[in-house]
Amino acid sequence: MDSIDYCPKCGLKTNHEILSEEISKGGGDYEPSWSHKYSIIKCKGCNNIQFKSSYGDEFMEKLNQVGELVYYRNDSYYPSFLENYREKLENYSIPKNIENIHLETLEAIKSNSLLLAAAGLRMIVEAISKENNIKRENLEKKIITLLNEGKITEKEAERLQVIRLLGNESVHKMTRSTKENILLALDIVEHLIINLYGLSSENLKP
Description:
By secondary structure, the protein is α+β, with helices and mostly antiparallel strands. The chain contains five helices and seven strands. A hairpin with a 5-residue loop joins β3 (about 30-45) and β4 (about 50-55). α1 runs antiparallel to α2, α2 (about 115-130) packs across α4 (about 155-175) and α3 runs antiparallel to α4 (about 155-175). The longest helix is centred in the C-terminal third of the chain and has 20 residues, at about 155-175.
């Protein structure tokens, strides 16, 4: 039996062989019917193996593209991944503390922990300031100093201020940003890291 699932190694949806599957079911009478499938699947293109959890019940309905009401299921995978995301920093030698925060922020995004992800993105900006020996009383002024010292462009400074505010909203007001905003901020931060630490040949990993 096959299924069509996203393969993080291939970077697209592919046919997967279901190596093993267990199904739990419940409901009936006065309780809603539900089912939970647990599967081990293997990509038929690259042989990558994942664990898949798929839950559905009779209340999970939505309109399809032609306006028909259809049932849907919530699928999750382990190891977790970001669909259509390609690692940008793996070929560069960047400061270890920035690399560690970046990796932990990625894991937060993968697990949909968006409050933690926003805080992580703000921490990366703090770490960049620390690496550049910027010592000011708050992050807003640190970003301005990075600009004044020619470390970043005016456009980059504007974007970092937005990421600073994104992190502040997460940490101080517990305001959860959208995943789209988090991914956009991640892209900005990653390009900045490459601009600062990855463009010289000495920072390329062998």
